[in-house]
Amino acid sequence: MNNSTKPGEKMKSREEYTNNLSIVNTSGVFINFISELYSMNKTAEKIVHNFNAGPSILPKPVFEEASRSIIDFNNTGLSILEIGHRTQLFQDVIDEAIALIKELMLLDDEHEVLFLHGGASSQFFQMPMNLLHDDAKAAYTDTGVWAAKAIKEAALYGNVDVVCSSKEQNYNHLPKSFHVDPASAYLHLTTNNTIYGTQWQDLSLFYNKGVPLVADMSSDILSRVLDFNRFELIYAGAQKNIGAAGVNLVIVNKKCLGKVYRKIPSMLDYRNHIEAGSLLNTPPVFAIYVCLLTLRWLKSIGGVAEAEKQNYIKAALLYDAIDAHDLFNGTVAKEDRSKMNVCFTMENTDLEKEFLSLCKEEGMIGVKGHRSAGGFRVSLYNAVPYESVVAITDLMNYFAKKNV
Ligand SMILES: Cc1ncc(COP(=O)(O)O)c(C=O)c1O
């Protein structure tokens, strides 16, 4: 295919290109084919069940609309990949995405919604840079690898008080008995520990500690109803329940900003992003657009409350299968079990390998546990269909009976 116009040749309209270039026509057909496969959750040969921990499955209508918009965004004749971020077209996208976050999370007017670069890992340092004085202290709960990384980065900016840790037990539970110095600048928690499969079920434990709360909600945001206004700051990478990788969501109570005296680089100062409406520089346009589509989908199914209900059912089905057979061992304390990332092992590592290859044969993707935890991890984010959970529990039941 040659899209270039030779010198002196009349510039072709986009429509002419589309009609004349067979490859474009073919790719149109290809897109239809791809979205048909997605809508059936299938490859050409078989059904795929995506249990990836992140980037992970998104709702089928999101894939369909996003693929259409790569070719033609909102009947503009432009791809979403080529629109300017300062156009009204994109302004409408980001405005609606922010409005949907506020609506779905019932945020009050004090809380600002930002879409930023750098993934959740950048928040490990950006947040303390904005909230923690050099001589102040922040309280941190050490409940997994991501929490430990957050602790390490915060220590670059101030004093860190690790108020509890389950590291010695390979993060197999959440330590609930701890004291927080009321003078702490904030208390940081990871609401769901993606790698180990633990999740704080009762956040009231944190609400009465008397210090501002900061939470990494990367792997369970929008999956359950919480009083989000209780948090001074929430951050989350998009690539699980919010949308595509490449952007992270930050929700910040603007009252907590402007209290540290260090110099903050412009791009890292939340106040600048608030003032610029997340358009301080070129934002990840496509990733934010995918967030918008995912948020629209979430609203269409009944919002966070409905997602929570479905997530509860899916997780119960899977944990029941684990508990029903001696072959499988849940790896974390039952009361702390995550509804997003379900982790389990088998005593016999040969059987683990056999089960993994069976999963592969059956089109089950992303079932292998993280290297720090071993065994299996099945992620059950909002977009994972109930049918996929039925499929894996059927396989577990079959495998357990075969290996009694
Ligand atoms: C709880 C949690 N925090 C932080 C991260 C890091 O996110 P990112 O890769 O977007 O920096 C992850 C990644 O999976 C996570 O699960």
Q: Could you characterize the architecture of this molecule?
A:
The chain is α/β, with parallel strands linked by helices and 404 residues long. 40% of the residues are buried. Helix 5 runs parallel beside helix 6, helix 9 crosses helix 10 and helix 10 runs parallel beside helix 12. It folds into two domains: 153 residues, Aspartate Aminotransferase, domain 1; 212 residues, Aspartate Aminotransferase, domain 2 (3-Layer(aba) Sandwich). The strands form four sheets. The chain has a seven-stranded mixed β-sheet, with helices on both faces. The chain has a three-stranded antiparallel β-sheet with strand order 11-12-14. A two-stranded parallel ribbon has the order 1-13. The longest helix is centred in the last third of the chain and has 22 residues. Strand 6 and strand 7 form a beta hairpin. Helices cover 39% and strands 15% of the residues. The chain has twelve helices and 14 strands. The structure holds pyridoxal-5'-phosphate. Pyridoxal-5'-phosphate (PLP) binds next to helix 5. The site of pyridoxal-5'-phosphate has 12 residues, from helix 5.
